Structure formats: C-alpha cells, structure tokens
TrEMBL record, chains A, B:
Keywords, ordered alphabetically: Acyltransferase, Cytoplasm, Lipid biosynthesis, Lipid metabolism, Phospholipid biosynthesis, Phospholipid metabolism, Transferase
HAMAP family registered for this protein in UniProt: PlsX (MF_00019)
Main location: cytoplasm
EC identifiers of the protein: 2.3.1.274
Protein name as it appears in the record: Phosphate acyltransferase
Catalyses which reaction(s): a fatty acyl-[ACP] + phosphate = an acyl phosphate + holo-[ACP]
Family: Belongs to the PlsX family.
Function: Catalyzes the reversible formation of acyl-phosphate (acyl-PO(4)) from acyl-[acyl-carrier-protein] (acyl-ACP). This enzyme utilizes acyl-ACP as fatty acyl donor, but not acyl-CoA.
Oligomeric and partner information: Homodimer. Probably interacts with PlsY.
Length: 356, 356
C-alpha cells in the first residue's frame, strides 16, 4: 500500500509500540511479520519517534506512519496515575486516534489496567454495558473457546454476567464466523441448583432476556479445555485464577516433557525421531498463536496484546484487530444489549403493574 | 495382624466400600494393594455383606472385618435426602464408627456432598470452625501443594478463609512432616491492594491473629503449580473451578501427547525409545498418586477418595488416612483455632473499651 492512498479509518490500526516486555523492537518486528503474513491495514505507530525510527531502519514495513508521543505508561503505573499523568503517552494518543475516528482500532502490549482506564475515559462504554471485560482465547480439544471476564472486574453482578455473555457471543461470532456460538456460565456443577445465587440469577435472566442465544446453562472448570461451549462466562476474579491455574499447569507439564526428552542418550534419540510430531505439539501449546484479545464493551475497538508476547504474538494480535475492525460486531453488541435491556424493562413494568 | 489382636481405635479405619464408580471391587482391590504396600491399620469394611464377601473371596486381605449395611448412598442422591433417608447406609455406618470411637478415621469414595452432610451431623465441627473444607493435593514443579477449599462451600467469609488457612497449615505439616508450611491466599495479583475487600480482610486478620504462621500474602493462579507456597487458601467456588480448569488442561495436553507419539512410524519408533522416560512422565501426571483428601474442620477424621479413582488411588487414600489417624493434627487445629479466636476476641474487647 502506498502512503498516499488515504485508507478508510477502519482499515487503519493505531499501534502503541511502547510498553511491551520485549520493547519497541518486538512490537515493530510483530508489525513486519503481520504484514508479511497478509495484514492489509495501514499502521499508525505511536511512540518515541527516535526510538521507533531506529528500529524501523533496515526493516521492510510498508504502509505505516510514525506518530510521536513523549511519554510511556509502564507496567508498574497505577491505572489512576496513568490516567491523570499519562496524557502525553503513546497509549493515550493511540486510543485517541480511535476516538477521533482516525483509526478503526488500537493494539497495545502495555499495562492492562491503564489501557482499560484510558479506554473507558476516551471511548466510553457501549450504552447499557457497565464495565469492559477482558477476553482470553483458550485452546481446547475441539479448537478454541473464548473466556470472559479474565480480570477486568474482580466482581460481577448477575446483569454484568449477562452483558459478558452477549459481548462474548458477538465476539466469538466475529472471530470464528460461527452464526450461533454456544454459551455457558462457569459454575461448580452443571445442575440448576449449583453455585451462587448470583450465578443462578444470571442464568435465569439470560434465558428470559435473550431467547435467541444458544445458551447451554452451567459448565464446569474442565469443560473449558473440553470445548463444551464456544463462550464461557465468568467474573474476572474466577476467570483470571482459572486461566492462570491452567497456564501454570501447561507450563509445568511442558517442563516435565522437556526433562523426559533429555533424560539420557536413549530418550534423546527418541526425541530426535519424534522431532516433527513434537514440533506440532509445541505449536499447539504455544500461547503466541492465540495472542490478542479485545476489551469488550467499549465504544471503540481496543485489542490487548500480552505484555510478554513475542513478535509472532504481536502479529497475531494485529491480525485479530484488523479482522475485528472491519466486522460489525461492535454494532451487534450495541443492538443486542439495547434489545435485551428493553425486554427486561418491559418485564419489570409488567411486574410493577401487576403488583399495583 | 491377627484378627484377635484388638487394635487401638486410631489404628482402625472404617472403609465405606460402596459408592465408588468402579464398585466394591475397586475399593477392596485398593485395600489389598494398600496392605501389600505396608498399610497396618485394621480395616472395617462397611457395605452389603454378600457383595463384599463375594469380592473378598480369593483375595488376600488380612486384618479386616465386614460390617453389613443394607443401603447405599448413590452419586445422584441429594445430601439432604441422603441424611434424611440414609441411616442404614454404609456411609452413615462408617462415619458412625468414628463417632463411637471404634475407628480413627473413615475413608469413602462416595457422594461428596452426602459424606460432608453426614459427617457434620455425626461428628460435628471443631469448635470455632464454621464449615468443613475439602482439600486437593496439587502437583507442582517443586512437589505438592495443598489447596483448600475446593468445593465444600461456594462462598467463604474472611473469617472462614482464616480457618481454612489454619486447617490447611496443620494438614500440610501432618502430611509432609514440615514444621512451618508456607501459606498463601489465592488472588488476582500479589500486590496488597488487589482483589476483593473480603480477601484483603482475610489477609489482615491472618497477620494479626496468627503471627506464628509463615503467611506469604497473596499468590496467583499460576503460583499453585509453580509451588510458590505449601498451602493455597481460597473459597470453594474459585478453588473448584481452578482445580478443574487445571485438570482439564492436563488431560488435553495428555491427549495431544498421545497423538504426537502415534503420528506415524517415525514417531512410534521415537516413542518406543522414550519408553522409560515417558513412563516416568506418565506417573507424574497420574492423579491416582495424590488421591485421598481429608474433609477438614470436622470432629473426626474423614478422608474422601475420588469416586473415579482406581485401586491404586484407593490405596493412596487409605495410606493417607492411616498417616493422619495417628497424627495429632486434628488436636493442633483445635488448639490453634481456639488461640486465634481468643486473640481476636481480646482485640475486639480492647477496641470496644477504647470506643466507650
């Protein structure tokens, strides 16, 4: 793409190149790889111009512009502080591009709490959505499952869980092109009577208010990697702990496997023969391939790339952002939330009238 | 051991042989293997006498008596129903043996909810403990970590989390012979300000009320298999979901590994060479080796064996029960809880006096 061609804003991505664990280098190398793999969006790179230009030198990254921002939000910055003092940061400026209609989405590898706080402030929430939710794309025996919330909110009301379900459903449909994704609520048992009152209330509201959803009721912790449903809904406390418990287990088993393959000459020979099969196994266990998760519920597209992601991970996040930027899923969330809230309000009115 | 030798009650285990997924056969085979591996306790086998005798025939199980019980609590029975109508069940009778001082502990593979309800009713709670907690022994890169609660209670107050910490500490010390196990509270971050108000309150109380405990503050989901602390404390909702999410992940990776080893002739040859190393890996990933978890906080020792455990798993649960039955850890829980409650009450009094 030539710089002169003015791209449509939804074909522009604002990239916060600062704040990743691997530095500017990792993010820009991710941009290069995404481009090589077919990414078409114009990229606006937000960061310290001199650093960015140095890294760009010698790299073949067409269709990008550099937007200077003096400050950097660090991983240690408190979200409140970042919002108060971070107006000159690359993160704030990149989100601002989406607000101003100059980009269809923003991708950042920086501090999640700060990204969320700055996004809420600049992009606002979709009407009827209380708080954003962070999604995780979880590998399963059948493919991938989207889990949300995995850490944006430590608590969630029944109504918020319902909002998460609606947002997760629309996101999964956009991500996978599946028309009616299946949705489950994470619980300690599948029976109706299990779990908190709050989670049972969420199930009740969902059944009443969104009859179009393919809601499968409760699912358990092992149903996530079992791929029982496409979308798993939970509060950010439980979701974050479940996700990290699973990641920790995968890491532990990966370590054990490496040990097993290096035990002695015999096992090393076996590992050599297994080479290609192990390579495939390794790629299945590689978190990079699923990196990039939108913060759902905001008035614009914000995609979080894992701070520790490598260049391939960043490339994955950019591709997801491009796919989502041209997809009407934000609009779908907006309309479904409005419909559901209207239906719930009508029911409330009817109940009030009956009571009078 | 000859049947004639009257064993001390703490050297007697009451075994509910009904209710396991694998039937009476699995439980009794588990008893045989435990005995072969060095279990010394006298075993009272509770169940339908004719069934038990049939399975015992031809098996070499010394030092056991059969105690007839007509009824069986099934996996589908609601705890309330089991308690109301299950007085003739093997589960009720086996717990009764502990209550009557005829056994030092009970081992059951049956319905967890029913086991808990029946145990609370017959054995009561340790004074100062509100509700029992179910423990899980979680494999880690460093060994094993005890996690509790993993499902007895869907909610837990700050005070209950403190009780779980005290019980888990005493249990870990008994299980591993470590004098001052490290204890952590499961949270979404390690910083003081992270998580629910409730969990921060629990951390505060623990620091104040049990200064002897080696309390390490908050730990995250991946710190469990990372082996960051010996005892991880959480509510039963979060603990159950984290445990099952991790189990599901391990199962998924195990399946992928089996596929990788069977891809083609080359990988099969590699798998053959890797044989012994893989055997070791498999045993590390085998849940049987850690089967058997006490319900903590009760007025007597109740060990739950996983319903789906194989004979080796049952044998593991029996050995854990024997080890715990002769250990004064129940007494330690009782005294620490009493001390901590006295200290908290004194602080309350002082605060009230200051306020007056």
């Amino acid at each position: 793409m030539k710089i002169e061609e003015l791209p449509r804003s939804d074909a522009v991505l604002a990239v916060d190149v600062m704040g990743a664990d691997g530095g500017v280098e990792t993010v820009i190398e991710g941009c290069v790889r995404a481009r090589a793999a077919g990414l078409r969006a114009h990229l606006k790179l937000y960061g310290r111009e001199d650093e960015v230009r140095t890294v760009l030198e010698g790299r073949d990254l067409t269709g990008c512009t550099v937007e200077h921002a003096e400050d950097v939000v660090t991983m240690d910055d408190k979200p409140t502080r970042a919002v108060r003092h971070g107006k000159n940061s690359s993160m704030w400026a990149a989100i601002g591009a989406v607000k101003a209609g100059k980009a269809g989405g923003v991708v950042s590898s920086g501090n999640t709490g700060a990204l969320m706080a700055m996004s809420v402030l600049q992009l606002r929430m979709i009407e009827g959505v209380d708080r954003p939710a962070i999604t995780a794309t979880w590998p399963t025996v059948k493919g991938q499952t989207v889990v949300l919330d995995v850490g944006a909110n430590v608590e969630a009301s029944a109504e918020q869980l319902v909002q998460f379900a609606i947002m997760g459903e629309a996101y999964y449909a956009a991500l996978k092109g599946k028309e009616r994704p299946t949705v489950g609520l994470l619980n300690v048992g599948e029976e109706e009577a299990k779990g908190h009152a709050l989670i049972r209330e969420a199930a009740r509201i969902l059944r009443e208010a969104d009859p179009d959803m393919d809601f499968r009721g409760f699912v358990e912790g092992d149903d996530i990697s079992g791929g029982e449903v496409d979308v798993v809904v939970t509060d950010g406390f439980t979701g974050n702990i479940a996700l990290k418990a699973a990641e920790g287990t995968a890491r532990m088993i990966g370590g054990w496997m490496r040990q097993a393959l290096m035990t002695d000459m015999r096992s090393k020979a076996g590992a050599f023969l297994l080479g290609p099969a192990l390579q495939h196994l390794k790629s299945r266990m590689n978190p990079s391939s699923a990196n990039g998760a939108p913060l759902l519920g905001l008035g614009g597209l914000v995609v979080k790339s894992h701070g520790g992601a490598d260049a391939d991970g960043v490339a994955s996040a950019l591709q997801i952002a491009e796919d989502l930027a041209v997809h009407p899923f934000q609009e779908q969330i907006r309309s479904t939330i409005a419909e559901v809230n209207a239906r719930l309000a009508a029911k409330d009115d009817a109940a009030n009238e009956a009571a009078e």
